[in-house]
Design goal:
The protein is mainly α. The chain contains three helices and no strands.
């Protein structure tokens, strides 16, 4: 496993990490890894909007097709 060194961390952030570590009963290492994983998951979810790339492409195509319909048209 690769080591990661973080420098110049805001003391408030370190305290928040410490409090989560104590509350969860995790080591500091476990806490930082879990928080990174959760943060990455949330960030990736925001980027993809919860969809995988093929779903994003299909949704974009469907939206484009709907936008191309004349105003007042019905799909039926």
């Amino acid at each position: 496993m690769t080591d990661l060194v973080l420098r110049d961390i805001d003391p408030m952030l370190v305290d928040r990490i410490r409090r989560i570590s104590v509350a969860r009963g995790w080591t500091q290492h476990q806490t930082v890894v879990n928080l990174l994983e959760q943060g990455l998951f949330a960030s990736e979810h925001e980027v993809h909007g919860g969809f995988q790339n093929p779903e994003v492409d299909a949704l974009a195509d469907a939206i484009a097709a709907l936008k191309a319909l004349p105003a007042g048209s019905t799909i039926f």
